[in-house]
Write a structure and sequence with these properties.
Belongs to the NADH:flavin oxidoreductase/NADH oxidase family. This protein is of the alpha/beta class. The chain has helices at about 35-55, 70-75, 90-105, 130-140, 170-175, 185-195, 205-210, 215-220; strands spanning about 10, 30, 60-65, 110-115, 150, 175-180, 200, 220-225, 255. The strands form three sheets. It has a five-stranded parallel sheet with strand order 3-4-5-6-7. The protein starts with 8 loop residues before the first strand and ends with a strand.
Amino acid sequence: MQPDGQAPISSTDKQITSDVGTGMAYSKPRPLRTEEIPGIVDDFRCAARNTIEVGFDGVEIHGAHGYLLEQFMKDGTNDRDDEYGGSLENRCRFAVEVIDAVVREVGAHRVGVRLSPFADFVECADSDPVALADYMVRQLNMHEGLLYCHMVEPRMSNVDNRIPHRLLTFRKAFNGTFIAAGGYDREEGNKVVGDGYTDLVAYGRLFLANPDLPRRFEVDASLNKYDRSTFITRDPIVGYTDYPFLEDDHNDHSTIHA
């Protein structure tokens, strides 16, 4: 799927293990050359400028879930021996340079950053996620007025299937608005905001299945049940856009209570 069949870029040449369940095979990446990185940083800057110019209020820099910036940040996927590899500071250098460039271009008040230090999506994991999260929060604090820090809860297998709530340290350390994400429902979201655990709660899977999620939460209505098998699909009809709104009379999806 890369232009001209080129290898995808990464911090490493390690190939992701094929997905046994779906049969999906991942291409072998090539590590970015040191001299290429400033150009990628500038691509982020340019993309942010274009985003604001077409009318968006702000941008979120995606430093999570195994995407390029996180591949550099985590020691499980960064095996470089240049100034972008090795120490925690070096591994975070690329992400910090991107954040700095975007903030200079559009202003800190228009920039949020998403981080998932505890996740290991697509085999992108770190041996010390607490240290990684702490370092990145301190880097974000260098930008006065940064719009927000958006962090993903660690996933844990609990008897009662509750959220582990391990982000409080970073919420306290961050100087601005803190957003927590990961497995929240309406009740738990209201609770953690009310308790001061976080400023805001982000919803992903529930929003995919409920295009009017804020309204459903407001009136405490039942929710469409999401279909995980359609989350990553090329089907032009099934998934994403076929979930009904609250006022629709016909509802072909199962529902769960908020």
